[in-house]
Amino acid sequence: LSLSLSLSHTQDDSQWWGRRDALVRCASAALWQNFQGTPFPWTQECVILLDDYAAVAMDPSLCRAVPSPTEQELIRLWRDALLGKTVPGVTCFAKPATGTGQRVQLAHDASKRDILQVLQSHCSLEFLRQHHLNSSAEAVLKKTSQPKLRAVFEKWQETAEASNATGLVLALSTCLKQILKHHLAGKRSPEQKTVVMLLHEDYAQELPVFGGGSGNGADQQPDVDIVCLLGLVRDLTLEEEKVVLEVCAGLGVAVATANLGRTAEFTSKIVLALHAHMAHGALGGAVLALVARSPSPGAGLEQALLKSAPQRASGQRWDGRQNVVPAAAAAA
Fold first, then answer.
1. Model confidence pTM above 0.85
2. pLDDT (0 to 100) of residue 295
3. Could you give phi then psi for residue 92, rounded to 5 degrees?
């Protein structure tokens, strides 16, 4: 599952529209084993979850319909699906209606990044532009103070659009339930274990795929149904992570969190690394090992999910190599 802004034809001027190349790159990495219409044999579907919490789901039959996935072709097919047209290999989950409820709350010690993440996740592009917050997070954080961001947040709270924030959270919950129920209905057997694995470079545990006796091939690993969830254009917000936990707990689905090294990488590169681990028979066992270490929902899993791992001087990257930090930085 990935997060981006809507592909609707009314959103062409949005701040993220220029990242449609990333959407196509990740979808291609997830489904297409080659550009001759051959899908990866273990991929059941790839779902792009949009910021308005509509979702576009693609199954392997799309690879046969579109042997070579170009940006122009995939964007056209996604748009057609969102507009209600029938597209082979593409299913569109209807956009849930937004409602009203309690407004988003900030912790008293919320950092600049926390406040900006809430604003960029919930505010309209017009509001962000008005307050010069529509650039990348890193650019905004360099030139904006915490008091100023909090003042903008308070101003947003006074607007009508803030009252819909809780409705969007409910919409996300509804959409995730639809996606997971649809996925669970396609399991090979009721006994097959399903695990939702959230991936981000700041999660505390590295995916234990190296040195564990793997390498016997995809057919020789445990029979586990893995749903990988990671940010595409932006990371999940803390609120969205909590919704994932609540939905999985309600459906009885296990949750694990992991990083594939502490270095931030392109999402498509992480997807290809997961394919490599699957092909070498390492992914299933690694995910089950993570689940065995994870607390059950209600026993601290939320705290483990929300706590970012500290930066380290060394650690394994997505490809198994060691991260190397300059001596001066390590000493600092």
1. no
2. 62
3. -110, 120
